[in-house]
Amino acid sequence: MKPQPNTRLSAQAMAFVLAGGRGSRLMELTDRRAKPAVYFGGKTRIIDFALSNALNSGIRKMAIATQYKAHSLIRHVQRGWNFFRAERNEYLDILPASQRVADSRWYLGTADAVAQNIDIIDDYGVKFVIILAGDHIYKMDYEVMLQEHVTTGADVTIGCLTVPRTEAKAFGVMAVDAKGQVTEFLEKPKNPPGMPDDPENSLASMGIYVFDWAFLRDLLRRDMEDSNSSHDFGHDLIPDIVKNGRAMAHKFSDSCVTSGLETEPYWRDVGTVDAFWQANIDLTDFTPKLDLYDNAWPIWTYAEIVPPAKFIHDEDDRRGSAVSSLVSGDCIVSGSEVRHSLLFTGVRAHSFSALDQAVVLPYVDIGRHAKLSQCVIDRGVQIPAGLVVGEDPEEDEKWFRRSEGGVVLITQPMLDRRAAALD
């Protein structure tokens, strides 16, 4: 079956977003929220990228499976993604793990999260289902992948990154033939296979899968009855299709969305404190690797109604300024110096304070004379006057979380413990 000219397959597809994971490598940033609900880029959340890709691709039917500490995520989706209208055949359902199959059974794995909602997906009346991870940063046109899926007659089409073989050990890696059919799926192999036309690089799974719904439905039914299965796409379903069916690899470079400023396909797993900090700080570059200013492919989110950012005081040692930084609405930089930093909504930086390479989440208050560098500050934190972070590693580790890369994570409980110890 070949796609018909001028027919958008996205109109016949739904996006099923897996957003139930904690993301424990982000440490205390996920103490109160799931990884997909973590803030990113000044005003968005991580999940906004997968949802925006689907919306911009023409998909108007979506479902989000949640499990771990989902309140923040659910509230964000309800506030920022409430413009779908059923009378236009548009839907966005939030599907918390709710013991729908058995009283004691939550989502056991990624495939089980879909399987437990088969009846809901049936009601959508779709032909294709795109399985998405809700915790990666990238811009991608899923319509291109859908077209390739139909053209190749695949049972599953797997979104793949091109990565150097030396880095592929950390991924699920595809061995493919000259036509792009997956011949072997290897989970974090010691010796990753190269690509037929590019032996120095490997194809790594992005956790994005396109299925015909009828095929996936039958596969999920069989998997639910298999007591030996871990009910996971990457561990169970995909290897089975590779062995017994037709799995095709889709290169991300063929469907990534660029504005002309990006020099290479951009995809990031911001699953560690170091990666999260770096990806945010990268946005302050003169020409960032990810263009958030591309109006042709907007990243939709909950847009709070807030006043503009404000910069006050203009004295030699007390000047409100920001250089090579992103400053969101409702921020007041009051006699503070901000460099190479990213300030989310509602931050207050008081006089004589200084920020350098700081990622400051919403509604943080930074006291006078505080000096903060190479750090991530969680939402709502009250930074005491005179606090210095980023200059003395031993002192930082005494009170805060310091990553392998030297990034300091600051949360309110950490500051409370410090205050109690110094009192």
Can you put this structure into words, describing what you see?
It is a single chain. The protein is of the alpha/beta class. It folds into 2 domains: 9-284, Spore Coat Polysaccharide Biosynthesis Protein SpsA, Chain A (Alpha-Beta Complex); 310-422, Hexapeptide repeat proteins (UDP N-Acetylglucosamine Acyltransferase, domain 1, 3 Solenoid). The chain has 10 helices and 29 strands. Strands 1, 4, 5, 6, 8, 9, 10, 11 and 12 form a 9-stranded mixed β-sheet that branches. Strands 17, 18, 20, 21, 23, 25, 27, 28 and 29 form a 9-stranded mixed β-sheet that branches. Strands 14-19-22-24-26 form a 5-stranded parallel β-sheet, with no helix packed on it. The protein starts with 12 loop residues before the first strand and ends with a helix. The mean pLDDT is 93. Pathway: Glycan biosynthesis; glycogen biosynthesis. Involved in the biosynthesis of ADP-glucose, a building block required for the elongation reactions to produce glycogen. Catalyzes the reaction between ATP and alpha-D-glucose 1-phosphate (G1P) to produce pyrophosphate and ADP-Glc. Keywords: ATP-binding, Carbohydrate metabolism, Glycogen biosynthesis, Glycogen metabolism, Nucleotide-binding, Nucleotidyltransferase, Transferase. It catalyses: alpha-D-glucose 1-phosphate + ATP + H(+) = ADP-alpha-D-glucose + diphosphate.
